[in-house]
């Protein structure tokens, strides 16, 4: 056969897994500075990614700054001090801990390790979109079980959706984007009914905010009872370290050893490890974070309701707002025009909703005023 010169324009890249073509890239939005410049605004309030409005604890910042002197060195690939700190704080053996570049990476590692072509991951919908992404990236299928009428996980329906091809079932507790949670009894029932070939993953990214709710399950306690399961937590939310990308998961030892074979040797950077160790020991900062969230959540809920909208009861640091018939996508745009960034919910199939992160009092006020103005204008237009 005559050889043909290959030009780069001719090359067609084909992913190994066809399911990759179904993935919509995760939308992160523009940098705040860019948005301010584009819209000619001098103030932008970002309440879109469920970050801690207080930032990181002073102790974590100091530890991170100290680590800057050592940036020329690779991080500790074993995460020795961070695993030690997590182990002490949760009373879980270090051999049961996996660290990740955000808990997001641990989801990807589990999917890579356990999913083959045409396998299935069962999870609720709407829920954290990375469950879908990690599943499709590995050639598997996402079985998305609608939340119930109260926007809570429908665990009986999820149990029914499990087939012989299901390898993973993920439960976000509390759930993002709804803030709803499954209770201890319901969860234990569900876990007890699972076939051993299905690995349950309990994503507790918002655990610290939710743990004081009556009947909120403690995944770590369930794991310690000897259950075959994974419990994921993160430093991105209540610990205020989203920018550093560090999370962890607890799981049976054998699973940790398998993940150690496929993860990057230095998957969690040195600044993140140092800051996370310090963050874990700063109980005062965590309390301040939780206090602020409690007070501001109540105020936001009351004010949003007084505008005639509804909120879904939330155990996390964000609120899903039912806009009572107004279009969520438009309200999102109009808030953005006024300098408030929230999360549009159209991609989650909740087009009449927006999700807002609980911010500082002045940030929440800015959001509330913008929302009130928009509501007034819309009502005016309808007359
Ligand atoms: C439910 C849930 N799980 C996991 C994550 C990922 O967190 P990270 O990768 O920052 O640890 C998030 C972040 O928004 C989340 O909402």
What brief labels describe this structure?
alpha/beta, 4-stranded antiparallel β-sheet, Aspartate Aminotransferase, domain 2, 2 domains, 383 residues, Aspartate Aminotransferase, domain 1
Tally of structural domains: 2
**Bound compounds:** pyridoxal-5'-phosphate
Q: Briefly, what CATH class of the largest domain?
A: Alpha Beta
Please, what is the average pLDDT?
95
The CATH topology of the largest domain: Aspartate Aminotransferase, domain 2
The CATH homologous superfamily of the largest domain: Type I PLP-dependent aspartate aminotransferase-like (Major domain)
Give the SSE order as H and E letters: HEHHEHEHEHEHEHHEEHHHEEHEEEH
Silhouette? globular
Q: Which runs of at least 5 residues are low in confidence (pLDDT < 50)? A: none
Computed over alpha carbons, the radius of gyration is: 22 Å
How would a crystallographer describe the biggest sheet? 7 strands, mixed
Oligomer: single chain
Helix content: 25-40%
Order of strands across the biggest sheet? Answer: 2-8-7-6-5-3-4
Q: With helices defined by DSSP (H or I, 4 residues minimum), what is the helix count?
A: 14
CATH architecture of the largest domain: 3-Layer(aba) Sandwich
Strand runs, count = 13
Strand composition percent: 5-15%
Distance between the terminal alpha carbons, to the nearest Å? 74 Å
SSE class: alpha/beta
